[in-house]
Amino acid sequence: MVTIGMNYTVIAGKEQVFEDACARVIETMGGIEGHDTSQLFKQVSADAPLYLIVSRWQSEDAFDAFIASDAFKKVTDWGKKNILASRPRHTTYQES
User: Fold this and answer.
1) CA angle at 51 for the pair 79 and 72, rounded to the nearest 5°
2) Cβ–Cβ under 8 Å, residues 92 and 1
3) Tens digits of per-residue pLDDT, 12-26?
4) What is the mean pLDDT of the chain?
């Protein structure tokens, strides 16, 4: 099992758009092979809207296949153009 932290800085005023998009993506991820669970968190004390998606996968390969998919690329391209203030950062946490 591997946990991925996906960090996003959102353009101010676009928080609800981001949250709604994430809800749809997380729902879709439920049917992806190798995906266990995902949750969205928001940092409430930040100057800029900061979000973290914590996602558990059966393996890092399963996550890599997801982020290489056309569906993920479409969502990230849309996000870059419309709601993200900076490039997302992903961190991998291996379980022992």
Assistant:
1) 35
2) no
3) 999 999 999 999 989
4) 91
Q: How far apart are CA 43 and CA 92, in angstroms?
A: 20
The DSSP call for residue 32 is S
Distances (CA, A) of 82 to 19, 73, 78, 91, 96: 13, 14, 6, 23, 38
pTM: predicted TM-score of the whole model, two decimal places: 0.86
| Count of CB atoms situated within 10 Å of the CB of 13 | 9
Nearest to 2 by CA among 44, 43, 58: 58
Q: What phi and psi values does residue 76 have, to the nearest 5 degrees?
A: -70, -35
Domains and CATH numbers, the chain: 2-94 (3.30.70.100)
Separation of alpha carbons 40 and 52, rounded Å: 6
Quote the distance between the C-alpha of residue 6 and its chain's center.
Answer: 5
